[in-house]
Design goal:
heterodimer; A: six-stranded mixed beta sheet; about 30% strand; globular; B: alpha+beta; two-stranded antiparallel sheet; 15 helices; elongated; binds adenosine-5'-triphosphate; binds magnesium ion
């Protein structure tokens, strides 16, 4: 079942005199349960594509369908709700909220959904248990290693049972072993919970695990 | 949880938070002290005037306050006396003869209000007896005259000296009479000391040949709150031959001055508010710019821009509230000290004296001022956070995240 459809999306950045075509009529479908990797050299448009799929940025032309809904019609608040309910994000720089503990970071989106404190605490503990990071619960981001922070970020991304998790070079800042562990974790979630993952990466560890690989070059898909 | 994030964000840069907090505390203290001193001052001015001479209610013959001519005297004193002594809200009253005249000493002369008082009764109605600086209070049956300190300096007379008063009698002839300065009083205001002199009413009666007529009843009710009630009941009983005025009607200038003064506190709030306002704008802006990337993350998780807006406002509001509470407590401790002990402004007493303000000021707060002092800073803190909060919400999440 196709949950996301990207239809001839073009994104142009205008910086001063030069216009950069970061994405050039990209079309793509993503199915439920995929472990999809978007690869390509630096500057090929991976982050741009992920951000547009994640509704964090608008294309100049083309359409994105999420479960057959054209999201270009959505208002800012509707997009926020969509991200809250259907999307999970993992960033290269971990990006946890520094003033919150690990468990509070994980609870945060449940709080935005209005889930009562006791319920969300229980669910956050469950997921931390699943990912084997329960001992991090009360640590602040600056008290954790990069790998630990990224595990918490994974927990945060999947805690609301999203339709899809978008991960932009999640292993780039991790050493090789920690990166593999993190990928194990995400693969497990993909298999056990049937959560769809879309990665951007030029890391072979990631590419090797892909259920499907998409190569980007100069904003165009060169294989599919 | 938003509250928790807001509070923790405040602890992130403790020094910065402390600086803003201090400015809010200082602002609140400044408001409390300024308001209470100002209020205490104008209250004193009004009370001085009421206690010194005006009393709470005055009765005159109709038209007397328009033109204070001696022939507009009160005819039916027995009736008024019986009304006043049977009214249980009235504490004290006394009668006065009032004429304008000239007072001459060996060296100088001055225009004066000559006020004939019933010495035994007047001492309960006004402070004049308690305001004696030297000498004695006028006595019935004597050629006594009580003059103000300024007047004594102007006429260059001392207690025991002779002065000559000149005035019109009731039938219009000019008459002069010799008096002896029995005492010198000091009032809060030099203007007052320069215009009013007191003589015993029986002597005033024979001086200007009033034939037992009087011009004024000065009345004190049990409390200031009874004034309006007593005034209207007396108006009902006395009818339109008399004019009955309360202290507000008798001192319109002073009362409006008090009102104007109370309104000028707005100017003060604005100045203090603006100073703190810019501090808050500046600090919140710094704090927001440092966290733009974080806001991007929050937005990507699904936080709405209005929730981010609220969070930034809340951070500032927390400072506003905490600072106000601390400032309010400190301000009130300082205030209570001065409320009981007074602020000694004797160094400036010359200029204060001419305004009718005492040299020692007792700050005084009322409910309105307390409410104001609790509102100004929290409101300022919210207003100051609006622009930074808008700034935080203006960006697309990707723009926000790219900031670092
Ligand atoms: N905000 C921006 N303003 C201007 N140009 C941009 C902006 N973001 C990206 N670009 C340009 O668009 C192109 C695609 O960038 P993008 O970040 O999507 O590449 P990427 O594949 O993610 O690269 P990397 O592997 O280095 O992360 C690049 O040429 C980049 O310089
Ligand atoms: Mg990238």
């Amino acid at each position: 079942m196709e949950i996301i459809k990207v239809e001839s999306v073009t994104k142009i950045y205008n910086t001063g005199a030069i216009a950069v075509k970061a994405l050039d009529s990209v079309s793509l479908g993503i199915n439920k349960g995929e472990f999809l990797v978007i690869a390509g050299e630096s500057g090929s448009g991976k982050t741009t594509l992920l951000n547009i799929i994640g509704t964090l940025d608008n294309p100049n032309s083309g359409k994105i369908y999420l479960e057959n809904n054209d999201i270009s019609r959505y208002s800012k608040d509707e997009l926020s709700d969509l991200r809250l309910n259907k999307l999970g994000f993992i960033f290269q720089a971990y990006n946890l909220i520094p003033v919150l503990t690990a468990i509070e970071n994980i609870e945060f989106s449940m709080m935005l959904l209005g889930i009562p404190e006791s319920v969300r605490r229980k669910k956050a503990l469950e997921i931390m248990n699943d990912l084997g990071i329960d001992e991090l619960a009360n640590k602040k981001p600056n008290q954790m290693s990069g790998g630990q922070q990224q595990r918490v970020a994974v927990a945060r991304a999947i805690v609301n049972d999203p339709l899809i998790v978008l991960a932009d070079e999640p292993t780039a800042n991790l050493d090789s072993k920690t990166g593999e562990n993190l990928l194990d974790l995400m693969e497990k979630m993909n298999k056990e919970k049937n959560i769809t993952f879309v990665f951007s990466s030029h890391d072979n560890k990631v590419i090797n695990r892909a259920s499907r690989l998409i190569m980007l070059k100069d904003g165009q898909i060169i294989n599919n | 949880m938003i509250f928790r994030i807001a509070v923790r964000n405040l602890f992130r840069n403790k020094r910065r938070t402390l600086i803003v907090l201090t400015s809010v505390i200082a602002g609140t203290i400044a408001i409390i002290l300024n308001d209470s001193v100002g209020n205490g001052m104008v209250k004193q001015m009004l009370e001085n005037q009421i206690n010194l001479h005006t009393a709470y209610i005055q009765i005159h013959n109709k038209g007397f306050s328009d033109e204070k001519s001696v022939d507009r005297y009160i005819k039916n004193q027995e009736y008024i006396d019986s009304l006043l002594s049977s009214n249980s809200d009235i504490k004290f009253y006394s009668k006065r003869i009032i004429t304008f005249g000239l007072l001459n000493s060996a060296n100088s002369s001055s225009g004066v209000n000559i006020i004939g008082i019933e010495p035994e009764k007047e001492q309960f109605v006004t402070f004049i007896k308690r305001s004696l600086l030297e000498g004695n209070y006028p006595q019935t049956g004597k050629r006594d005259i009580l003059i103000g300190k300024k007047m004594s300096e102007k006429l260059e007379v001392e207690v025991g000296d002779k002065v000559v008063a000149v005035s019109n009698t009731l039938d219009g002839t000019v008459k002069s009479e010799l008096f002896r300065v029995c005492g010198i009083y000091q009032a809060g205001s030099s203007e007052f000391e320069n215009t009013n002199v007191y003589i015993p009413i029986d002597f005033a009666d024979s001086f200007i040949e009033m034939n037992r007529g009087v011009h004024e009843y000065a009345i004190i009710t049990e409390s200031l709150d009874d004034v309006d009630k007593t005034q209207s009941s007396l108006i009902n009983q006395l009818g339109s031959d008399y004019e009955l005025l309360n202290y507000r009607e008798l001192l319109p200038l002073l009362v409006s001055y008090v009102d104007v003064y109370r309104k000028t506190v707005i100017v003060f709030y604005t100045i203090i508010g603006l100073a703190v306002f810019f501090g808050i704008v500046n600090t919140m802006l710094m704090s927001v710019m440092e966290r733009i990337q974080e806001f991007g993350v929050l937005m990507s998780i699904g936080m709405k821009t209005k929730e981010i807006f609220k969070m930034v406002i809340l951070e500032s509001f927390v400072i506003g509230i905490v600072g106000t509470i601390i400032g309010f407590v400190i301000g009130n401790i300082i205030y209570s000290y001065f409320h009981y002990n007074g602020i000694d402004l004797r160094a400036f007493s010359e200029s204060l004296h001419s305004l009718g303000i005492n040299a020692i000021i007792y700050p005084s707060l009322n409910l309105q001022l307390v409410i104001n002092s609790l509102l100004v800073m929290p409101v300022t803190s919210v207003l100051g956070a609006i622009y930074p909060a808008l700034k935080a919400t203006k960006l697309m999440p990707t723009d926000a995240m790219r900031y670092v």
